[in-house]
Amino acid sequence: MILIIYDSVFGNTEKVATLLAAEIELLGKPSLARTVANVTDEEIKTAEVIVLGSPTRGFVPTDAMKLFLTEKALLLTNKKVSAFDTRLDPKAVQAKIMGWFVKKPSYANDYFEKEFEHAHAQLVVVPNAFYVRKGKGPLSKETPAQVTSFATNLVKIK
After folding, report:
1. Structure letter (DSSP) for residue 57
2. Which of 27, 68, 101, 102 gets the most CB atoms within 10 Å of its CB?
3. pTM for the full predicted model
């Protein structure tokens, strides 16, 4: 089973998580999407692959996701993992302004990769970024194709 653990602020990350779970199921693999507040230790322990998803908030994942990574790091040891984040489309005006203040902006995915390394988890698929148009959404029109590609890569994991 592929377990997708996510947090969402405006609903965009939740949409990606549910689309991803549905696509994984269509590809013939069991999946489960759970909010970070509702996932159980048993679900984490029995998952073959764990995917974390969060919006990028202030260059990192949400506080709930950071707390999860702190409290559940031992459950990720030796687990096959991946991640995704939702972020402002870099073509958006705000991203250009942000780039002026920050030479190399960081994203939730960067944080996930560092935490996976600390937890001795095995990163099996490169984290994926899903773009949000404007501040609160909607997701970009490329999202469905990206979800399909990401799901296909996850299902191939042995």
Report:
1. B
2. 68
3. 0.92
Q: What is the pLDDT of residue 92?
A: 63
Instruction: Give the confidence band of 93 by pLDDT, cuts at 50, 70, 90.
Output: very low
Is residue 62 scored above 70 in pLDDT? yes
State how far the alpha carbon of 30 is from the alpha carbons of 4, 24, 62, in Å.
Answer: 11, 7, 27
In the predicted model, is pLDDT for residue 107 greater than 60? yes
- Helical pair 63-71 and 108-119, crossing angle rounded to 10 deg: 10
CA distance 61 to 7: 9
Which H helix or E strand runs over 50?
A: strand 49-55
Residue 99 has pLDDT above 80, yes or no: no
Q: What is the pLDDT of residue 35?
A: 98
> What is the rounded distance in angstroms from the CA atom of residue 138 to the CA atom of residue 115?
28
**CATH fold of 2-155:** Rossmann fold (3.40.50)
Residue 27 CB neighbour total at 10 angstroms = 15
Contacts with 112 (C-beta within 8 Å, 6 or more apart), sequence order: 52, 54, 61, 69, 83, 85, 127
Q: Which sequence spans correspond to the domains of the chain?
A: 2-155
